[in-house]
Amino acid sequence: MSRLLALFPLNLVVFPGEKLNLHIFEPRYRQLVRDCLSEGITFGIPPYRNEAVSMLGTEMQLIGVEKSYDSGELDIRTRAIGVFRIEEFYRQAPGKLYAGGLIEEVADDNTPDVLLQARITAHVERLYDVLGLRKLMQELPADYRVYDVAHHLGLSTEQEFQLLEAETETERQELVLEHLEHILPVLLETERLKERVRLNGHFKNLTPPNF
Questions:
Q1: Please, which residues have CB within 8 angstroms of residue 144's CB and are 6 or more apart in sequence?
Q2: Of 9, 43, 124, 183, which has the most beta carbons under 10 Å away?
Q3: Of 81, 107, 92, 79, whose CA–CA distance to 29 is shortest?
């Protein structure tokens, strides 16, 4: 069923469950925050890609205002709660400064493939080890979703948007696994080369062949 949703297009992809802090300075989005506070509405962030507003986006809930400035600017905390598809886009929502759209929620199958999850976990551990980000792995819950790690895998904005388009966790797992299997050998080879460069010029304790 379609409903009207306030829209805040941005040059980024937000995943369900993600917490996002924003600095609000434009009058139209200051109005949006006021409406969130006074009317309890949510708003959507459709990624702005290729000079256009995407027809897919993430619905956001305002958690709170962290700081209000004398200028009227605001620091806010938000949380992503779901994915939607825009059926009709309005540059201005009725009677408002900010954009809006008729949207329909996108259903999501969150059930993971256990075998794919195990392979992804092994790859992510290696990736974080190479990048010196072991702490991120320690902070992950055992039942993590692809969304929980997606921003830390070196994906391009287009690849992140592909994840947002995927309507099942299994689809997302397959996309992430393909990406990890492509970049990990490159990263490992880069680390090997860096080590060779570091060793170049050092005194080497080598055992000569016995012949």
A1: none
A2: 43
A3: 92
Q: Which residues contact 70 (CB under 8 A, 6 or more apart)?
A: none
pLDDT in tens, 120-176: 999 999 988 888 888 888 888 889 999 999 999 999 999 999 999 999 999 999 999
Which residue, chain included where needed, has tokens 């004398």? 70
Please state, in angstroms and rounded to a whole number, the distance separating the CA atoms of residues 43 and 52: 18
Question: Where would I find the beta strands (DSSP E) of the chain?
Answer: 3-7, 19-24, 43-45, 48-49, 52-53, 56-68, 74-90, 99-105
56 strand-pairing partners: 85
d(CA 155, CA 83): 19
Rounded CA-CA distance 51/23 in Å is 22
Fold observed for domain 3-105: 2.30.130
- Looking at residue 109, the DSSP 8-state letter turns out to be B
Burial (CB < 10 A; 0-12, 13-18, 19+), residue 119, is middle
Indicate the residue type of 161.
Answer: F
Q: Read off the pLDDT of residues 39-75 as tens digits, 9 standing for 90 and up.
A: 999 999 999 999 999 999 999 999 999 999 999 999 9
